[in-house]
Amino acid sequence: MARSVTDEAVPPAVDAEALRELSRARAATMVCFFVLALLFASWAPRIPQVKEELGLSDGELGLALLGGPAGALATISIAGFLVGRLGSRAMVRVTLVGYAAAALGLVVVSGVPSLFAVLALWSALACALDVASNAQAAIVEDRFGRRIMMTVHAAWTGGALAGAVLGAGAAALDLSLGLQFLVLGAAATAGALPVTGWMLGGDRPTRPIRPASVALPADPALPADPALPGTHALPVDPAPPADAARAPGPAGRPRASPRRLRRGRSRRRLPSLRWAVPLLPLTMITFASYLGEGIAADWSAVYLTDVTGASPGLAGVGLVAYMTCMLGVRLMGDRLVETHGVRRTIRPLAFASAVVFALALAAADTPSGTVLGIAGFAVLGAGLACVVPAAFSAAGQRAVRAGAPAGPAIALVSSVGYAGWLAGPPLIGGLAELVGLHTTMWTVVGLACAIAALTGVLAGFAPIGSGPDPPDPPA
Fold it and tell me: Which of 447, 162, 164, 161 has the alpha carbon at shortest distance from 294?
């Protein structure tokens, strides 16, 4: 027997039918991300109404809202395990239905304990859907041979913007919370569940990541390979006979039994979790990015109101500008990274966000402070837009190249990122009590600089066929 010698630099051929299949899988994943963000973002504008109806104080509301992060953090590792065991497509289907149905529980809450419990369950299902959708995106990206993760995450950003608008509109029209989630949940399930059939069914790589050898020039000493003109086939040792395990070994010693051989192979597979060690740098940059995102989401309006003196209506523009710029950059992010590489795309954006935000902070008490503040949050959205998708892509590719499912790897990186999202708002609040909010917001500048410095950990994990990340130019 002989195996053909292939060239590692040549991407696998993708015929028209396979391309259509991958395109449908990408579209289905984007629909799921859109639905995930749509429902969750539509809840935020209704929080004041729920607080008033239940008669909650600020402290009681804050305690009840902790149910969301608690449910997500408690579930994310389990979600990664289940994705690895059941597959991302099956997990998306189950969690999508449960996520849409659990939102209706917000209608029957009667106090802090019930609101905490419903939010914990809803966020747990949302977290599981998020991990499964990211795992599916990583598999599609691997088989596509080019980057798609940032475009997929753009669907999440678009869903968040649409959900916020719909939630605010429902609140303005005084629609009941139950009617809102009944309509949105039914529409989301009816629109997203059927297209999950387009998703890919296997979460492990279906082709070898590392070819056994490279193409060799013609050599008279080797037999010609008819499949590859001008090259030769490499000889491969024939398979051992079926009773080889029972044949006596060297010096007449009996060979190990098949059961013992299987046990030994299973023991050797246990250290396969070593693929998770290189993910630790990815968790660091993901933590920093989520930290910045949490600060922008919770403190942008407060900063513009209290520090720059913006009106309440104008203060909300900061978050809208942040989300809009993030959406725009994510829509272009895959193409930019394919052309220029991860470092040359994310690092300048992160540095630009640090510079513009620093200028906004320096001019916060001037007449142009509000305008510059809005610009600072807008550029911050651009600077953070590609970080998390690139980190998830790198985590998924690292796992796939090790022959492991992408779900647990993405769950590991996501769990640390969610911790950053949770830590950001209270960290800013605590520091603001000590040194003031204006001074505390310089933390955002430091985070942007840290992301720019850590961008190199995102490189080197490009999908097969997309080309290597260009090296940094010499200093």
Answer: 447
> In which band, very low, low, confident or very high, does the pLDDT at 203 lie, cut at 50, 70 and 90?
low
Rg (CA), the chain: 26
DSSP letters of 396-414? HHHHHHTT--HHHHHHHHH
pLDDT of residue 259: 52
pLDDT tens-digit map of 419-474: 787 777 778 878 888 898 899 999 999 999 999 999 988 876 555 445 445 444 44
CB atoms under 10 Å from CB of 320, counted, come to: 17
What span, in angstroms and rounded, lies between the C-alpha atoms of 393 and 139? 9
Phi-psi group of 2: left, alpha or beta (phi > 0 → left; psi -120 to 50 → alpha; rest → beta): beta
The tokens of 204 are what?
Answer: 């492990």
Give, as one character, the DSSP assignment of residue 222.
Answer: S
pTM for the model stands at 0.74
Would you state the torsion angle of the CA atoms of residues 26, 29, 30, 35, taken in this order, to the nearest 10 degrees? 160
The residue among 384, 371, 393 whose CA lies nearest residue 325 is 384
Per-residue burial over 163-200, b = 16 or more CB atoms within 10 Å of its CB, e = otherwise? bbebbbebbeeeeebeebbeebbeebbeebbebbebbb
Burial of 304 (0-12, 13-18, 19+ CB in 10 A): buried
Which pair of tokens denotes residue 374?
A: 């809005």
The CA–CA distances, whole Å, from 111 to 42, 53, 107 equal 21, 10, 11
* Of 98, 70, 94, the residue nearest 83 (C-alpha): 94
> How far is 468 from 173, CA to CA, in rounded Å?
52
Tell me whether residue 13 is exposed, middle or buried, using C-beta atoms within 10 angstroms of its C-beta: 0 to 12, 13 to 18, 19 or more.
Answer: exposed
Q: How far apart are CA 130 and CA 152, in angstroms?
A: 12
